[in-house]
Specification:
This protein is of the alpha+beta class. It contains eleven helices and eight strands. Among the domains are: 71 residues; 80 residues, Hypothetical Protein Yqey, Chain: A, domain1. A hairpin with a 7-residue loop joins strand 7 and strand 8. The two termini are 18 Å apart.
């Protein structure tokens, strides 16, 4: 982190305070990072919702015609033409290859949105659904935080997963927490052998119980989505049965503060840490940089 202002001692105190708070909490909230949804153009989860709802045309048109502030003027103009139905004119000036592929398919196949969607690489097609699942996960996590529900302690109704042979969370090994199991389960959590989870929604997802389950159901209700929607009849290869993801991301972090050679008179902070697969370094960095958005 470069361009840090302040005296060495003051910066060190702030870094230590954040690190100690993270340690006390057992880690940080395991949000999906913004790059999951698109940085310049956060559209992937929006397209994913259309797919989950079975609206392939909506997914295609959203991807090629929705405009975002950070885009080039050429892209914005091409999207405006697309939105007004002038696909051939849009294709002539569209600078982006995936959008061009979709426009070509729409023009050649008399507006067939399914053909247009299939013009995209298969890994990108799946990314849309995954992004929407991630978006829902982040909402649940945020609501859990607002309700002051613990992340490092299980409560009745929670679903926990256990560690695998390598010590990492195994989403296939889960158990529902009941009142009579709370004490024992929290001993496992404290030892890093179990982890509180939140669902990555799919058509086989089972809601948690109690207040946690109520949050999960409320999120789907607000989105006008049902679990069955995650089986996509028009494109079954994009369907998802769902899984789970730990709510807490443990960190083993060390910070080094030194003079910033690129910004004379300021400091830089080097953070050394390890994160498991699927975790986002940007989420951890936000804790130290205090990014609001």
């Amino acid at each position: 982190i470069r361009g840090v202002e302040g005296r060495y001692e003051a910066v060190k105190d702030k870094i230590d305070a954040i690190t100690n708070e993270i340690g006390t909490n057992g880690g940080i909230a395991n949000f999906f990072g913004v790059q999951r949804f698109g940085i310049t153009r956060p559209i992937t989860h929006v397209v994913g919702k259309y797919l989950i709802k079975g609206d392939i045309n909506g997914a295609v048109m959203s991807y090629i015609s929705d405009i975002f502030p950070g885009e080039s003027e050429a892209a914005k103009q091409a999207r405006r033409l697309c939105k007004s139905g002038k696909l051939k004119e849009s294709l002539k000036i569209m600078p982006l290859r995936y959008e061009r592929a979709m426009l070509n398919a729409l023009i050649k196949n008399d507006g067939d949105s399914l053909s247009a969607f299939h013009s995209l690489p298969k890994n990108l097609q799946k990314l849309f659904v995954h992004a929407y699942q991630s978006y829902l996960f982040n909402i649940i996590l945020s609501k859990r935080m607002k309700r002051n529900l613990p992340f490092n302690v299980a409560i009745a109704g929670d679903v926990v997963c256990f560690h695998n042979e390598f010590g990492f969370p195994d989403p296939d090994k889960v158990e529902r927490v009941t009142e009579d199991k709370i004490e024992g389960m929290n001993r496992l959590l404290k030892r890093g052998r179990a982890f509180v989870t939140v669902p990555i929604f799919g058509y086989e997802t089972e809601f948690a119980d109690g207040v946690v389950g109520a949050i999960e159901r409320k999120v789907l209700e607000e989105e006008a989505i049902e679990l069955d929607n995650f089986y996509i009849e028009k494109m079954p290869e994009l369907s998802s049965k769902g899984t789970s993801r730990p709510v807490l991301l443990p960190t083993d972090l060390k910070a080094e503060i030194s003079d910033d050679e690129l910004n004379p008179g300021q400091l830089k902070v080097k953070l050394n840490f390890f994160l498991p697969k699927g975790a986002y370094a940007t989420v951890l960095l936000r804790e130290y940089m205090k990014v609001k958005s």
